[in-house]
Specification:
With about 525 residues, the chain is an alpha+beta fold. It is built from 16 helices and 25 strands. The chain has 4 domains: about 150 residues, Methyltransferase, Cobalt-precorrin-4 Transmethylase, Domain 2; about 60 residues, no CATH class; about 180 residues, Heat Shock Protein 90 (2-Layer Sandwich), CATH 3.30.565; about 70 residues, Winged helix-like DNA-binding domain superfamily/Winged helix DNA-binding domain (Arc Repressor Mutant, subunit A). Helix 9 packs antiparallel against helix 12 and helix 15 packs across helix 16.
Length: about 525
């Protein structure tokens, strides 16, 4: 069976953390058994892992090109694997995929976290004698035997299935849309995309482990409805993002935007709106050097990571939406509930956050595969790093003792504080100069000028294209102050809405504003 993600991304650890991947030079039944058991137990709630047979490992990295395994032995290994997995107490069999990578045959065992953990297996595979059995777990990049304390933790987790992996008894297979499944598989480069259009939704969903229950009574898991149904809010109240622009403390002139749809769609839409309507840049030119300093009121990388974290870690049981509040001096992102109680105030103060139990494992996997979230326990570090690289004050994290909510505050950069006072009473529109790249805001040596305008990103793109129909994506990025990736995403949306049309080839053609 094909994997739900791209094999090249998996082998190179691009979408899956290294601790969730184990490389095996060849088939070793005993060691594979221990690792399968360890991934099934999933003591750190990563979502299981992958065992790649036929690829050697050195210092945690794959040795490429792989030697692979003999093609004629693939069927024999598959049969032996089934017999070996029968030795695991608590029925558990991984998903097996035969792949050809760089001309070599390899086997990938996908070992999702088990819903009926803990599992134990023989310490030694013995034909004529009963072997001692033990619980195995993953620690860092290794499979080890659990000690007494770790066994206690495993039993504590027994029966605890994250909300996003539970079957939704109010939904059926017909609530999953192939129109959303197929683009997802194509975007992550999964082999499942090749024939998904000719198969039933149920077959593809089963391959992605999105269904639970017997064939006569299957139900989609919650994560499937969050990503592959157009209206997740029908199943999960308040499953959306609200962005409130509050230029005045009294609420005068306040604007509210609500972003709904599949989680990845609403996340991208909210980020696109914030990028175009909120984020602004200032350029400082210097007489003594050619390079200019470019500073943002809020760095996009910090906003993106903070909002993605809120979508990832919030509760989707009846709760409240993710709320983004923008005031003249800060950008605030709040979600319910707060972080795990194992994370102390001191951890937050030191930005040293290590969470064991993840509320939404599958949501995290999907967001990481779509490049919308970082790896495990790296998000806070990315937010802090982005703020410091921009010269902004450190972010602030509020996680009250009751753990009732979590708020991330991004203070505005000092260079924009004077402007923030003006925003409360008036809107300043600055005009720029014409260039071959389109319309950009001008600067003079020793002065500062805003790179963004109060208009949204779509309007700025359209105006730039009207000025120069052959403008490139890179030039649009310069003209609007947005990233090239954001420009590409916005143009795709404008084209789908029939507002823009491309005439001719990508290299020699031009843009046309239809309406």
């Amino acid at each position: 069976m094909a994997l739900p993600l791209n094999i090249d991304d998996l082998i190179h650890q691009r979408k899956v953390e290294s601790a969730r991947i184990e490389y095996k030079k060849d088939w070793n039944p005993e060691k594979v058994l221990h690792s399968v058991c360890a991934f099934a137990n999933d003591i750190d709630n990563w979502g299981g892992g992958y065992i790649i047979i036929g690829v050697e490992e050195k210092n945690g990295q794959p040795v490429l090109p792989p030697n692979g395994i003999r093609k004629e032995s693939v069927d024999a290994v598959n049969k032996e694997l089934l017999n070996v997995c029968n030795l695991i107490e608590g029925r558990y069999v991984p998903v097996v995929s035969h792949e050809v990578y760089n001309g070599a045959d390899i086997l990938v065992l996908w070992c999702p976290a088990s819903a009926v953990r803990p599992h134990k297996c023989p310490v030694v595979i013995a034909k004529n004698a009963k072997s001692e059995k033990a619980y195995y777990i993953r620690k860092a990049n290794s499979t080890i035997r659990a000690n007494a304390e770790e066994e206690r933790v495993l039993f504590e987790y027994a029966g605890k299935v994250p909300f996003d992996e539970r079957p939704n008894m109010r939904a059926s297979v017909s609530d999953i849309r192939m129109s959303l499944l197929l683009p997802f598989l194509e975007s992550v480069g999964s082999e499942l995309a090749k024939d998904a259009a000719t198969r039933s939704v149920a077959d593809v969903a089963r391959d992605m482990l999105l269904l639970e229950g017997p064939p006569e009574d299957e139900h989609p898991i919650n994560a499937a409805l969050m990503f592959f149904n157009e209206h997740p809010e029908k199943f999960f109240r308040y499953a959306w993002i609200e962005v409130v622009d509050k230029p005045d403390p009294t609420g005068q002139g306040m604007e509210e935007q609500t972003f709904k749809g599949p989680l990845d769609v609403q996340l991208r839409a909210a980020l696109n709106y914030i990028s175009g309507a909120v984020l602004k840049e200032k350029i400082f030119k210097h007489d003594d050097r050619a390079e200019a300093d470019r500073i943002w009121n809020y760095p996009y990388a910090a906003v993106e990571e903070a909002l993605a974290n809120a979508v990832y870690h919030r509760s989707y049981e009846p709760c409240a939406p993710v709320e983004v509040t923008i005031t003249p001096t800060q950008l605030e992102i709040s979600s319910l509930p707060g972080m795990d109680r194992s994370i102390t105030d001191a951890n937050l103060k030191d930005f040293n956050i290590r969470s064991r139990f993840y509320r939404n494992r599958r949501i995290g996997e999907f967001l990481k595969e779509l490049d919308l979230a970082e790896g495990r326990n790296t998000g806070i570090g990315k937010i802090v790093r982005a703020m410091r690289e921009n010269g902004s004050p450190d972010p602030q994290f509020y996680n009250p003792e009751t753990r009732s909510f979590m708020t991330v505050i991004l203070p505005i950069h000092e260079a924009f504080k004077a402007d923030a006072v003006k925003i409360e009473t008036e809107t300043v529109v600055k005009t720029g100069m014409k260039t071959d790249a389109g319309t950009v805001n001008g600067t003079v040596n020793g002065t500062v000028e805003d790179q963004a305008s109060p208009f949204n990103l779509a309007s700025r793109i359209i105006e730039a294209i009207k000025s120069n129909s052959r403008i490139t994506y890179d030039a649009l990025a310069v003209a609007t102050g947005a990233s090239r990736r954001t420009i590409s995403r916005e143009i795709k949306m404008l084209s789908q809405q029939g507002i823009l049309r491309r005439i001719g080839s990508d290299k020699t053609g031009h843009w046309e504003v239809v309406k």
